[in-house]
Write a structure and sequence with these properties.
Radius of gyration: 22 Å
Distance between the termini: 58 Å
Shape: globular
Strand order of the largest sheet: 1-2-3
CATH class of the largest domain: Mainly Alpha
CATH architecture of the largest domain: Orthogonal Bundle
Strand content: 15-25%
Structural class: alpha+beta
Largest sheet: 3 strands, antiparallel
CATH superfamily of the largest domain: Cytochrome-c3 Hydrogenase, chain B
CATH topology of the largest domain: Cytochrome-c3 Hydrogenase, chain B
Number of helices: 8
Helix content: 40-55%
Number of strands: 8
Length: about 260
């Protein structure tokens, strides 16, 4: 059997542009596999020579799906450049903005990218195995996904003034307070969003029973894990230190070392 190469281009179910090439040997076994990032952004280059205080706004443009993540990370780096401790309320507002980003991004990942495969089945025709297929066959779940992501995006807009590529988080804090009417609007919508999230989680947990065999075998191998943790070791999304765990859940290292 001659050597073969299988190319998957483009790779879907991700945000970005990439392809995968799989090389088979003479026996048809995988000899090598490569994940190719096929886009060039150039952020490192066009940021050279620019003042540091422009970095948060520039970095937000790395991604149209998760601009808040890059915005906050860059602003925190600028805080360190300035050697400042930002006001507590500014830190709280940054955290709220980051949570709104997590809501909209996770809603997109689950409802828009993963749900078509889970809900319609991996053997469904690709022309129908997408968000439009979910809308046609399960309109209530599609509506939940749109509604949850809408809430995250609107919360980002009410906090920062823009849904995409906001510049509200700045070195030293944030550029304006949260208006009382916007605060009340966000709070009023949270019960509905919790209901939607709970409904999706209940469905997902029940659905996982159908995929026990795939879970045991597909891409299941020992690996290390990394995440942010707070002072009590709980999961963090805004601040804290990096913690590394082994496949058994044992702590291997913290950075910076708290000891």
């Amino acid at each position: 059997m001659a050597q073969q190469k299988i190319v998957i281009d483009p790779v879907t179910r991700i945000e970005g542009h990439s392809k995968i090439s799989i090389h088979l040997d003479d026996q048809g076994l995988v000899e090598a596999a490569y994940f190719h990032v096929t886009q060039f952004r150039g952020f490192e280059k066009f940021c050279e020579g620019r003042p540091f205080y422009e970095m948060p706004s520039l970095m937000a443009r790395i991604c149209g799906i998760c601009p808040v993540s890059h915005l906050i990370a860059s602003a925190k780096a600028c805080d360190q450049v300035l050697a400042v401790r930002i006001p507590p309320n500014a830190a709280r507002l940054r955290r709220v903005l980051n949570l709104a980003q997590i809501v909209q991004s996770h809603a997109l990942s689950f409802f828009y990218l993963s749900l078509p495969d889970l809900l319609l089945g991996k053997d469904a025709h690709p022309e129908h195995r997408n968000l439009l297929g979910v809308v046609a066959n399960h309109p209530d779940m599609a509506r939940d996904g749109v509604r949850l992501r809408q809430f995250g995006q609107s919360a980002i807009e009410m906090l920062s003034g823009k849904r995409i590529h906001p510049a509200w988080v700045v070195p030293g804090g944030v550029s304006s307070p949260l208006a009382a009417e916007h605060r009340d609007c966000i709070l009023a919508k949270i019960p509905e969003m919790l209901t939607i999230a709970g409904r999706a989680l209940d469905w997902f947990k029940s659905e996982m029973e159908k995929f026990r065999e795939e879970i045991r075998s597909f891409a299941n191998f020992p690996t290390l894990f990394m995440g942010l943790v707070g002072e009590n070791g709980g999961l963090e999304h805004y601040d804290g230190q990096m913690r590394f765990l082994d496949a058994g859940g044992r702590v291997m290292a913290d950075y910076p070392d708290a000891s």
